[in-house]
Amino acid sequence: MKKFQSDPNTTTLTTAKQWLRSNFDEGEISACPCCGQAVKLYKRKMNKGMASALLRVHQLLKKAGGAWLHVNGLSELEKSQLSHMEFQKLRWWKVIEESPAERGSWRITPLGVDFINGRVQVRKYIYLFDDRPAKDVKNMDTTTTSITEAFGEKFDLQELMSSL
């Protein structure tokens, strides 16, 4: 495990932050040298559960007939389904967004609509640090995926879309 070597008389916060940014994606740091917070870079994959959640949000929006879906307005079963699918993670791919005016209200972004309809691909992996997308990750996997690929080989998007 790498440790930050510092001299309290000469080390600046900027120096410590630079060291952290240049080393955190190697998975060898356990604590931030500035604040002691646990340091971990997470690699998240656009997976079947997230693709399912996006389509479920699409269905619920269509059913409600609105642009925004308020989670508190859903039945307990619907809330449970979305929570289980971890739909909020989709914000990291920018295919959904929460209303800045009303917490708990979500909508599918234009990118999300294009992704659902197979017109675009999104990054297969998002790297997260402190629950935010990380930038400047060494050896970042920039592979993209379609919604069909996110579901897996046995998935038929056209069949599902015609049933909505």
Overview of the structural elements:
With 164 residues, the chain is α+β, with helices and mostly antiparallel strands. The chain has a domain at 46-123 and 140-162. The chain is built from 6 helices and 8 strands; from the N terminus they run H-E-H-E-H-E-E-H-E-E-E-E-H-H. The protein has helices spanning 13-23, 48-64, 76-85, 110-116, 147-151, 157-162; strands at 42-45, 69-70, 96-98, 105-108, 122-123, 125-129, 132-133, 144-145. It has a 3-stranded antiparallel sheet with strand order 1-6-7, with no helix packed on it. The termini are far apart.
Outline the fold blueprint.
Elements lengths: L12 H11 L18 E4 L2 H17 L4 E2 L5 H10 L10 E3 L6 E4 L1 H7 L5 E2 L1 E5 L2 E2 L10 E2 L1 H5 L5 H6 L2
Antiparallel strand pairs: 1-6, 2-4, 3-4, 5-8, 6-7
Find the count of extended strands (DSSP E, 2+ residues).
Answer: 8
Structural shape: elongated
Main sheet: strands, sense, barrel: 3 strands, antiparallel
Biggest sheet strand order reads 1-6-7
In N-to-C order, the SSE pattern is: HEHEHEEHEEEEHH
Helical percent range?
25-40%
- Calculate the mean pLDDT score and round it: 80
Structural class by secondary-structure content: alpha+beta
How large is the radius of gyration? 20 Å
* Cα separation of the termini: 51 Å
Report low-confidence residues grouped into runs of 5 or more.
none
Beta content: 5-15%
Our count of helices gives 6
